[in-house]
């Protein structure tokens, strides 16, 4: 399945959703979080320090992408990710070269391979919509303790918020970035956060950090040399500002939820973009959003195309799911904001009532 970027004139339009005829309340409801198939990657915390170490001496090439509303976000170039994966695989035994890696270095990175690779390498359109949506929101609404991005991939929304927090001195925050694939978190999500942080430094400091091991290293605007010093400085900034970054890989499930909730933070914001495309996992991602909204009173932001042709998920299905859970007594409300009516994309705000 592939989708392309393509923005037409954005017209924002809001309606409170009354979904198709509401399903009848089910007495024997089994929470989809509790019945995730066994052939998926289990939820796992990825150690931040180890992930940073694995990037040492890497030269990251990135693109600065400016959203329709003029927000600059940074994302590592796909060819650069593939290059790193190939180099790492060259140094591994055959047994260590995972199916996941084989797909990551394949020619068509837009493929989704069910339960193996779920599309996190590229930035999907709704993540850009989400950045522009977040840009219109107040700091007080956004920066409430823990920010969770589910199915983050390149994590443009989180990197936008991270950038904003760093520049406006919003400290004491916990970011949880979750993606099905550990490789995506390590090779794309984390580098994008580092590049975002680097963009907030004074130019002289940035040059010094990049040249700390080799004075002759060329300094190029869209490349970043990840020296030990630069990585250490990134980590120290997080500590100084009491900003925690946690990376969680693996499938959404009850144990995934417990892992997210296992730190000292309380989720204030949960974001997810282009994750309701699969009819099988739509109920699971919906339940996660419902959990955070109903238990932690978080604000939920779900960005999606209205229809996922060829795969089956849709906005209406998501609305129907939320309506069903409302009827079953979950204390949630939702409002659908239409984004760019021509391309039929939406941002759904889910709140506690
Ligand atoms: C289509 S990509 C969207 C990536 C990113 N949010 C964006 O909009 O650019 C879907 C994302 O959801 C994640 N995902 C899909 N199914 C998942 C599952 N069952 N458990 C955990 N993550 C999942 C994938 O790893 C992937 O990053």
Automatic annotation (TrEMBL):
It is an enzyme of class 2 (transferase). Its main location: cytoplasm. Its EC number is 2.1.1.85. Keywords: Cytoplasm, Methyltransferase, Nucleus, S-adenosyl-L-methionine, Transferase. One of its GO terms (molecular function) is protein-L-histidine N-tele-methyltransferase activity. GO terms for cellular component: cytoplasm; nucleus. Belongs to the methyltransferase superfamily. METTL18 family. This is protein-histidine N-methyltransferase. It comes from Cyberlindnera jadinii (strain ATCC 18201 / CBS 1600 / BCRC 20928 / JCM 3617 / NBRC 0987 / NRRL Y-1542) (Torula yeast). The lineage of its organism: Eukaryota, Fungi, Dikarya, Ascomycota, Saccharomycotina.
């Amino acid at each position: 399945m592939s989708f392309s970027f393509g923005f037409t004139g954005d017209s924002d339009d809001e309606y409170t959703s009354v979904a198709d005829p509401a399903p009848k309340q089910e007495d024997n409801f089994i929470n989809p979080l509790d019945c995730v198939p066994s052939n998926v990657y289990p939820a796992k915390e990825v150690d931040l320090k180890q992930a940073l170490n694995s990037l040492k001496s890497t030269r990251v090439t990135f693109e600065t992408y400016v959203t329709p509303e003029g927000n600059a976000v940074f994302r590592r170039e796909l060819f650069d990710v593939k290059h790193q994966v190939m180099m790492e695989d060259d140094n591994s035994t055959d047994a260590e070269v995972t199916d996941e890696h084989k797909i990551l270095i394949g020619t068509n990175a837009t493929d989704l391979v069910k339960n193996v690779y779920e599309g996190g390498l590229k930035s999907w359109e709704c993540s850009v919509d989400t950045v522009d949506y977040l840009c219109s929101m107040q700091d007080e609404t956004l920066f409430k303790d823990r920010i969770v991005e589910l199915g983050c991939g390149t994590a443009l929304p989180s990197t936008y918020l991270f950038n904003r927090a760093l520049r406006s001195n919003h400290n004491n925050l916990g970011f949880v970035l979750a993606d099905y694939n550990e490789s995506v978190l390590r090779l794309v999500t984390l580098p994008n956060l580092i590049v975002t942080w680097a963009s907030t430094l004074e130019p002289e400091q940035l040059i010094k950090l990049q040249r700390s091991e080799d004075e002759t290293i060329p300094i190029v605007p869209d490349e970043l040399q990840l020296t030990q010093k630069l990585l250490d400085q990134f980590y120290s900034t997080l500590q100084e500002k009491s900003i925690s970054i946690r990376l969680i890989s693996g499938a959404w499930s009850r144990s995934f939820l417990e892992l997210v909730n296992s730190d000292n933070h309380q989720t204030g914001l949960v974001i997810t973009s282009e994750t309701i495309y699969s009819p099988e996992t739509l109920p699971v991602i919906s339940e996660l959003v419902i959990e955070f909204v109903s238990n932690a009173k978080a604000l939920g932001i779900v960005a999606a195309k209205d229809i996922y042709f060829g795969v089956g998920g849709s906005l209406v299905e998501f609305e129907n799911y939320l309506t069903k859970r409302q009827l079953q007594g979950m204390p949630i409300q939702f409002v659908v904001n239409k984004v760019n009516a021509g391309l039929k994309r939406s941002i759904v705000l889910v709140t506690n009532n």
